[in-house]
From TrEMBL:
<protein>
    <submittedName>
        <fullName>Transcriptional regulator, TetR family</fullName>
    </submittedName>
</protein>
<feature type="DNA-binding region" description="H-T-H motif">
    <location>
        <begin position="29"/>
        <end position="48"/>
    </location>
</feature>
<keyword id="KW-0804">Transcription</keyword>
<dbReference type="InterPro" id="IPR001647">
    <property type="entry name" value="HTH_TetR"/>
</dbReference>
<keyword id="KW-0238">DNA-binding</keyword>
<keyword id="KW-0805">Transcription regulation</keyword>
<dbReference type="InterPro" id="IPR009057">
    <property type="entry name" value="Homeodomain-like_sf"/>
</dbReference>
<dbReference type="Pfam" id="PF00440">
    <property type="entry name" value="TetR_N"/>
</dbReference>
<dbReference type="InterPro" id="IPR036271">
    <property type="entry name" value="Tet_transcr_reg_TetR-rel_C_sf"/>
</dbReference>
<dbReference type="InterPro" id="IPR011075">
    <property type="entry name" value="TetR_C"/>
</dbReference>
<feature type="domain" description="HTH tetR-type">
    <location>
        <begin position="6"/>
        <end position="66"/>
    </location>
</feature>
<dbReference type="Pfam" id="PF16925">
    <property type="entry name" value="TetR_C_13"/>
</dbReference>
<dbReference type="GO" id="GO:0003677">
    <property type="term" value="F:DNA binding"/>
</dbReference>
Length: 196
C-alpha cells in the first residue's frame, strides 16, 4: 500500500526485548520503545500491542530463545549429567559475555519488578521463572538423582544461574562467575550416584 511504512516484526520485537532487558519494565517508556524499534506510538499499539502486551511478547521471546539453548545443553543429562549442567551454565556465561546484549536476565529482572507489574504480567513472569527449575529437575532425574535430590539441586542450580545474571550486572569478572559455576558443579558431582 502506497505511503505505508513497512517494518520487520522480528527486528522490532528484538529491539523492544533488548530495551526492556536493558532498562526493565518500569523504566521503559513508550518513547523508549519508539526510539528502540523505530516505530511511532500508534504503530507500536497497532502492530505490537500496549506496553503490557508487548512486554509479554518480549518475555516469551526471551524465554523461548534461551529456553531452547538450555534444553539443548541439558539434553545429554542422562549420559553425562555433570557435562549437561556445565553446558547449561555455559549458555548463561556466553550470553553474559556477548557485548551486544545487556547484562543480567530479562526474566530475573521481571520477577524482581513484580511490585510494579500488573497481576497478569507478574504471573507470567513467575511462570517463566519457574521453567528453569523444571527443566533442571527433569535433567537431574535423567542423570539418576533421586527425586528429592533432583528437586533440591534444581532449585539451587536455578538460583545460581540467576545469581550469575545479577553478579554480571554488578561487575563480577568472567573468572569470578566461572568460580561460582565450578563450586556448584563440584557439589553436584558429590551428590550424583556412582555410574554403573
Amino acid at each position: 500500500m502506497a505511503g505505508r511504512k513497512q517494518f520487520d516484526m522480528e527486528t522490532a520485537l528484538d529491539a523492544a526485548m533488548v530495551q526492556f532487558w536493558r532498562a526493565g519494565y518500569a523504566d521503559t517508556s513508550l518513547d523508549d520503545l519508539s526510539r528502540a524499534t523505530g516505530l511511532n506510538r500508534s504503530s507500536i499499539y497497532s502492530s505490537l500491542g500496549d506496553k503490557d502486551t508487548l512486554f509479554l511478547r518480549c518475555l516469551d521471546r526471551y524465554a523461548a530463545r534461551y529456553g531452547a539453548k538450555y534444553d539443548a545443553a541439558l539434553s545429554r543429562a542422562g549420559a553425562d549429567p555433570l557435562a549437561a549442567v556445565r553446558a547449561f551454565f555455559d549458555v548463561t556465561l556466553q550470553r553474559i559475555a556477548d557485548p551486544e546484549l545487556p547484562d543480567g536476565c530479562l526474566i530475573a529482572q521481571s520477577v524482581m519488578a513484580i511490585p510494579v507489574l500488573s497481576p497478569a504480567v507478574a504471573a507470567h513472569a513467575m511462570q517463566a521463572f519457574g521453567f528453569q527449575r523444571l527443566r533442571l529437575r527433569a535433567a537431574l532425574k535423567a542423570g539418576r538423582l533421586p527425586d528429592e535430590d533432583a528437586e533440591a539441586f534444581a532449585v539451587h542450580a536455578a538460583a545460581v544461574n540467576q545469581s550469575l545474571a545479577v553478579l554480571s550486572r554488578a561487575g563480577a569478572s568472567p573468572a569470578q562467575l566461572r568460580t561460582v559455576v565450578d563450586v556448584t558443579i563440584d557439589a553436584l558431582a558429590h551428590a550424583l550416584p556412582p555410574r554403573g
